[in-house]
C-alpha cells in the first residue's frame, strides 16, 4: 500500500476514535436544581425549580419546561436561566420535570429534576353492594411520585389477610397510579367485609378501605315478600275479628221478635169492655 494511503487511513481512524470525545466536549452544559420532596402538610412552602445553560457551542434559541413528558404551557423563554415555580405544592404537583433548551444548529439539550411526594389516594369506592354469585370490582387511584407499589388486603378485626392473584377468584390489576381488585362469583359467607388498598413509594404510604356487602339470591324478592306478608296478616286479623263478632250479632229463632203482652194488660182490657156493656 502506498505510504500516503496508509497515512490517510491512520488519520481517518484516529478521527473516528476522537469523535465521541470531541462531541462530548461540545455538548451543552446545564446546571439544574436538586430533587425536591414535597411535604404532606397542606401549608407547605412554594417550590422553585431552576435550570441554567452554562455552556453552549452553538447559537441558543429558547427553553421551556415539561412535566411527565408533556410541555407546560406558557414556560417558553429566551433566557438561559429559566425558573418554574409551584406556588401551592400538593402531591398532584409531584413528577418528573425537565427543562429543555433548543439550538439552531444542534439537538435539544435537557436536564431532569424529580419532585417527589408521598402517595395521596384521591379516588376509591366507599362501598360495593352485590348479590351472591355476581362479580365485584373495587378500585383506588392516587397522585404522587414515584408511582406507588399497590397491595390489597382484607381487614378482619385487628388482623389482615393479604390478597393476590393465586386463588383463581381474586384478580388485581395495577397501572402506575391506579389499582383494581376484581372478585368473581361472590360467596355470601366468606367475601363480605372491609377491603384495603395500600399505596407505597420511597416517601411514604397511604391506605383507604371499601366495604363489600353481599346479599342473598332472595334479596330482589324481599319487597314482594314483605307486601305479601302484610296482606296475609291483614286477612288473618279480619277473619279473627269476624269470628269474635258473629255470636253477638246472630238472633236466636226461639226468642220472640217483639215484646210479649202480659196477662194484667189483657185483664184490664176485658174489664173495660164489661163496663161499657153494662152502661
TrEMBL record:
Keyword hit for Repeat: no
Q: Which domain of life is it from?
A: Eukaryota
Pfam families given in the database record: Ig_3
The membrane topology term of the UniProt record is: Single-pass type I membrane protein
Residue ranges constituting the Ig-like domain according to the UniProt record: 28-114, 119-215
Q: Name one GO biological process term.
A: dendrite self-avoidance
Localisation per UniProt entry? Cell membrane
Q: Which residues form the signal peptide?
A: 1-24
Renumbered to this chain, region (Disordered) spans 250-279
Q: Which UniProt keywords apply?
A: Cell membrane, Disulfide bond, Glycoprotein, Immunoglobulin domain, Membrane, Signal, Transmembrane, Transmembrane helix
Q: Which residues span the membrane?
A: 221-241
- Quote the cellular component terms of the Gene Ontology held in the record: axon; plasma membrane
Q: Which SUPFAM superfamilies match?
A: Immunoglobulin
The answer to whether keyword Cell membrane applies is yes
**What's the source species for this entry?**
Seriola lalandi dorsalis
- List the protein's name: Neuroplastin b
- An example Gene Ontology molecular-function term: cell-cell adhesion mediator activity
Amino acid at each position: 500500500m502506498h505510504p500516503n494511503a496508509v497515512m490517510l487511513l491512520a488519520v481517518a481512524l484516529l478521527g473516528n476514535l476522537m469523535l465521541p470525545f470531541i462531541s462530548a466536549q461540545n455538548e451543552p452544559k446545564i446546571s439544574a436544581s436538586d430533587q425536591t420532596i414535597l411535604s404532606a402538610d397542606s401549608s407547605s412552602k412554594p417550590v422553585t425549580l431552576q435550570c441554567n445553560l452554562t455552556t453552549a457551542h452553538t447559537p441558543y434559541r429558547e427553553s421551556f419546561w415539561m412535566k411527565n413528558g408533556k410541555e407546560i404551557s406558557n414556560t417558553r423563554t429566551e433566557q438561559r436561566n429559566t425558573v418554574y415555580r409551584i406556588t401551592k405544592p400538593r402531591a398532584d404537583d409531584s413528577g418528573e420535570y425537565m427543562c429543555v433548551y433548543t439550538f439552531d444548529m444542534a439537538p435539544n439539550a435537557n436536564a431532569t429534576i424529580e419532585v417527589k411526594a408521598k402517595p395521596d389516594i384521591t379516588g376509591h369506592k366507599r362501598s360495593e353492594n352485590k348479590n351472591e354469585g355476581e362479580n365485584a370490582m373495587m378500585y383506588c387511584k392516587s397522585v404522587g411520585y414515584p408511582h406507588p407499589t399497590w397491595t390489597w388486603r382484607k381487614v378482619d378485626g385487628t388482623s389482615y389477610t393479604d390478597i393476590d392473584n393465586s386463588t383463581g377468584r381474586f384478580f388485581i390489576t395495577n397501572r402506575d397510579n391506579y389499582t383494581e381488585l376484581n372478585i368473581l362469583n361472590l360467596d355470601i359467607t366468606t367475601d363480605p367485609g372491609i377491603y384495603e388498598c395500600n399505596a407505597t413509594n420511597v416517601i411514604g404510604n397511604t391506605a383507604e378501605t371499601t366495604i363489600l356487602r353481599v346479599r342473598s339470591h332472595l334479596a330482589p324478592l324481599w319487597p314482594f315478600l314483605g307486601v305479601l306478608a302484610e296482606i296475609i296478616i291483614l286477612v288473618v286479623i279480619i277473619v279473627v275479628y269476624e269470628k269474635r263478632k258473629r255470636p253477638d250479632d246472630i238472633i236466636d229463632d226461639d226468642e220472640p221478635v217483639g215484646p210479649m203482652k202480659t196477662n194484667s194488660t189483657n185483664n184490664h182490657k176485658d174489664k173495660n169492655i164489661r163496663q161499657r156493656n153494662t152502661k
